[in-house]
Write a structure and sequence with these properties.
This protein has 207 residues and is of the alpha/beta class. The protein has helices at residues 11-24, 68-79, and strands at residues 3-9, 30-33, 55-61, 83-84, 87-88, 93-94, 99-100, 105-106, 111-112, 117-118, 123-124, 129-130, 135-136, 141-142, 147-148, 153-154, 159-160, 165-166, 171-172, 177-178, 183-184, 192-194, 202-203. The chain folds into two domains: 3-84, Rossmann fold (3-Layer(aba) Sandwich), CATH 3.40.50; 87-207, Hexapeptide repeat proteins (UDP N-Acetylglucosamine Acyltransferase, domain 1), CATH 2.160.10. The protein contains two helices and 23 strands.
Length: 207
Amino acid sequence: MNSRWIVGTGDYLQEVLLIWQQAYGQGAPEKIEIPQLRDYTFDLSPLDALSPSDSEVFVAVDERFGNFKRMELMQAVMARGFKLASFVHPSAVVGVDTKIGMNVFVGAHAVIGHTTRIDYNSVVHAGVHIGPRGRIKSSCWIENGVQLGSAVELGAHCTIRMGASIRAGVNVGRGCELGWPRLYEHDVPNKTVFDSRYGEPIHTYGK
């Protein structure tokens, strides 16, 4: 693979670059900033200068807009013929028979239990512990130090904030945000938000 780039925007882009550089030194990819316009669309012109032949791209956009903007840019990169890379920090521990999808980030000292599956475009930050037989569906964002018990399932586009822990066997529906620093012991319905500013969970209905 001759060329590698980290493309994206925002604080997460710089964070990924620094972590990659610390882990691999001069073997780290080059950063390519993709500006967001005032209407939040991407200016994709920096991609026009890159050749998809024999190259890899990692897409880094933070969790604002429920991870949909990172997925949007990922799809634009794929449409141009680029191969998507994933990043697993060399200090992370990944169990046997674990499957990690494309454009997944696994941070320093994370522990991923055996036979876990992490689908594409998900972010597992430093110090996260995912028990065995876990299932992390696409475009999830799991912050530093989160603890997931064995056989926990997160639906697509979930955000799990720092300080949250999830008991073994709990299913969290798609589009949820667990923002209270507490132990979650029961299944969480789709599109439920535990916002630290409010004393009750917020339930969003509809499609």
